[in-house]
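Annual report, structural modelling task.

Input specification for the thiamine diphosphate complex:
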Amino acid sequence: MQRVQGLGRSGAAGSAAPPVPELPAVPPMTAPELREVYRLMSSVRRLDEAAVAWQRQGILPAYAPLLGQEAAQVGSAFAVDRERDFLFPTYREAGVARTLGVDMVEYMSTHRATWHGGLWDAAEHRLAPIQAVVAGSVLHAVGWAHGQRLAAASPGDPQDPVGGLGVAVAYLGDGASSQGDVHEAMNIAAVFAAPVVFFVQNNGWAISVPTERQVAGGSVAARGAGYGMPALRIDGNDAEAVVSATRRALAYARAGRGPVIVEAVTYRRGPHSTADDPGRYRTLDDERRDAGADPLERLRARLLGEGLANEAFVAECDAAAAAEAEAVREGVLALGPRPGAEMFDLVFAEPTEELLRQKAQWRKESEHG
Ligand SMILES: Cc1ncc(C[n+]2csc(CCOP(=O)(O)OP(=O)(O)O)c2C)c(N)n1
Ligand SMILES: [Mg+2]
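The model returned the following structure:
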């Protein structure tokens, strides 16, 4: 670690910041991997479009579409080690959940307003509950990552402590990056070399506020230098670019070298949520100009163009995605309400007096007691 010697701070002030370390290289993706990513992206596209329709049909009260962000979400989740790593989503990460094998009925339970955060087992799937507090996921991820370091009993070689650390992946948006919490989280993660990848989906918008009105300098990755943290800014609509960048970042963090920022530049093609009307703050011409290549069509063109897959494979993916979406719809419709008492019982391991008082009051007043 570099140290400022004694009171030589004034001397240090004139010198350049220390160079940011390089990330390790990773091999190109194999054809089966690319096909698997395509299969997952097809499934996610279909489910996401279906969820918007379900909201319009009154099946879901609300949903946050990820249309256009499939490569960023599937690619980043595809890169992780599902035994060791842990992912911390926002409210727009259905594609991450699907890639990790989360039951999508359990995922949609939040959008059905059946349960907060989803019904899946977070520990089993290595995916924390859905987080609606902007930047909340980032704080949880850094805390978990710091825990990985503390749990490493005998760090040994600092380049490879105990055979590699579990890495937290913190999902955040361009908008979230302007929250003070994110600055604090990045700073402390870098100070303690916590194994965390800050995976930023820069989708151009924070509800109605464009990135240029939200992120000074227009880039989240540029902030990495200030924390001595490597940062990659990549084409978030290119699935292989996302997988490779995430793998590089994970390898660096896993080796105990500290946190990394990956900024995937993509585009929120749909509304912020089903309650939003983007026509109030951007035009269709803006969307056509800014959206860039559709990530799913782009990967399909590549697979077909390079002979890595044929039309029959694409058709099979489409059919499987349609069948899956229908099964999820039926599962969502069959979801019953959860016991109301859970809103008190699952707050603390040991309830407070006040919580017990509120629960008793609720029981008295509620027909559902
Ligand atoms: C702490 C907090 N502040 C404000 C909000 C309201 N809010 C919900 S989403 C959002 C915009 C977030 O934009 P971004 O981080 O770019 O993510 P995106 O929605 O584009 O995926 C805001 C301000 C919130 N949920 N939490
Ligand atoms: Mg955004």
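The first strand starts at residue 86 and ends at 88.
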